[in-house]
Amino acid sequence: MTKRLNFRPGVIVAAAVATLLALSGCGGSTPASSSTSAENPYGLIQAGTVRVASLGDSKPYTFADAQGNFTGFDVELFKDVAHRAGVDNVVFTGQDFSGLLAAVANGQFDVGVAAIGITDKRKETVDFSDGYLAGYLTVITTKTSGITDANGLSGKRLGVVQGTLQEAYAVKNFTSANLVRFPDNNTAIAAVNSGSVDAHFLDYEAAKAYQEQHGLVSAADIPSFDAPAGFAVAKGKTAFKEALNKGLAEAMEDGTWKKLYQKWFPGSPMPEQYLPKAEQTATPAPSK
Question: pTM score > 0.85 for this model?
């Protein structure tokens, strides 16, 4: 994704410091300032600040508004969880998704927050918090493309964002389509509009916004509950991961998660397993 910074007062300086710290940690070593201590129990790059690798154009999960401030479901949820963990200074920085997990693993950021699906392959690079979101994948196309379902992708040029769950799913399930990889959704949607690709495969929620903005249509909505989203942290950051899990559990149980979901995904299917226990059925399962 195109790199974007949150330009709130003081963040520019903080981001510059983060860059210097990241450079000092080249070669995969952990920056010295990230060591665990009484003043820095989570081993953060800078005590009292969480530096977040995210995406600037993944609405409604994480995106930069007109003022350059990061917002979205994942942003608001993570800030709430970080507050519960005792850290209120949270700095978001936009990254290309293809390099986001590596940047977290190498100590350039404390955490990755971008509706990142938890998979065994990604667990080889980073650890994850407990899951906090599950949803659908969507094939989006023009009204005149002739593609009306997933079977219609045979022989077509299908856009995917490199490194995403959509790419992995398409490689496995859309074997007769010609995949075209892009760095971000905006670039892929531009390619759909220009006709250089026939369709784009992306997240259901993001697809809704693009349909409204560009007059595109959904050709297929596919359930994807086997890889819930989680916060990505570097391996060995056990105390930090446990604090995030504790905060997530509290946010789900007291209804904060539900409130944010209703705000950012109005009318969308709600994964029941993240609701307060009193609101779950005997066997929690996402409903459609």
Answer: no
